[in-house]
TrEMBL record:
The keyword Calcium applies. This is Pentraxin family member. Belongs to the pentraxin family. Its main location: secreted. Residues 22-220 form the Pentraxin (PTX) domain. Homopentamer. Pentaxin (or pentraxin) have a discoid arrangement of 5 non-covalently bound subunits. Its cofactor is Ca(2+). It is found in: Secreted.
């Protein structure tokens, strides 16, 4: 990968807009309880299944939990993805979590995909295309629409209640979400791609930023 063009946008009050034809990436430079980016989905997140992918690099290590993705309605954490204090990766659906004892994230970019299907409860994750064991979680559950998708912070209430000790610090990109479970082969094929989600498509998704988040644009 060659970094041939970088555009820095640092706006303390907020930023918005789309930039196609380049790979966008978000850098959270420091621990804060203010910096986050809201992603505007293409359709309501009323979900009986999902595939959620992202590319992440972080130097956070040791006993430091951090949030990778938060989708919260007014009263519930509908879908929150975490790196736990003990290093496991997890996601929570309205309270209950499913945990994966997998190799930790680090300063080199890691491609993650989480999948879940309500009809069976099957939950799994992929790290750089390699699949975890499957666990059974929240069979019959439905993720509810009407919330906000947030990167960078864990909202304990709607778009607020952030905790600096749970904030994400590092770089995140290629956040794509589908309302169904991609095949194993499709997930492996997605590790090099950065777009195409039918709920969240990183190539076209609108951002609403707040605080100190830097958007860089990279030609691959
Ligand atoms: Ca919290």
């Amino acid at each position: 990968m060659r970094l041939s063009f970088i555009l820095f946008i640092t706006i303390s009050a907020g930023f918005s807009g789309t930039l196609a034809n380049r790979r966008r990436s978000l850098v959270f430079r420091s621990e804060t309880n203010t910096s986050y980016v809201e992603l505007i989905p293409k359709k309501p997140l009323s979900l009986k299944a999902f595939t959620l992918c992202m590319r992440v690099a972080t130097e956070l290590s040791g006993e430091r939990e951090f949030i990778l993705f938060a989708y919260r309605t007014q009263d519930f954490d509908e879908l929150n993805v975490w790196k736990e204090l003990d290093g496991r990766l997890s996601f929570y659906l309205s309270g209950d979590g499913v945990f994966f004892q997998v190799p930790g994230l680090g300063p080199l970019q890691t491609h993650l995909c989480f999948t879940w299907d309500s009809s069976s409860g099957a939950a799994a994750l992929f790290i750089d295309g390699r699949k975890s064991l499957t666990k059974i979680h929240r069979k019959g559950h439905t993720i509810r629409e009407g919330g906000s998708v947030i990167l960078g912070q864990d909202p304990d209430n709607y778009l607020g209640g952030f905790d600096i000790n749970q904030s994400f610090v590092g770089e995140i990109s290629d956040v794509n979400m589908w309302d169904y479970v991609l095949s194993d082969t499709a997930v492996r094929g997605r590790t090099a791609k950065m777009s195409g989600g039918n709920v969240l498509d990183w190539e076209t998704v609108d951002f609403r930023g707040n605080g100190e988040v830097v958007q860089i644009n990279v030609n691959l």
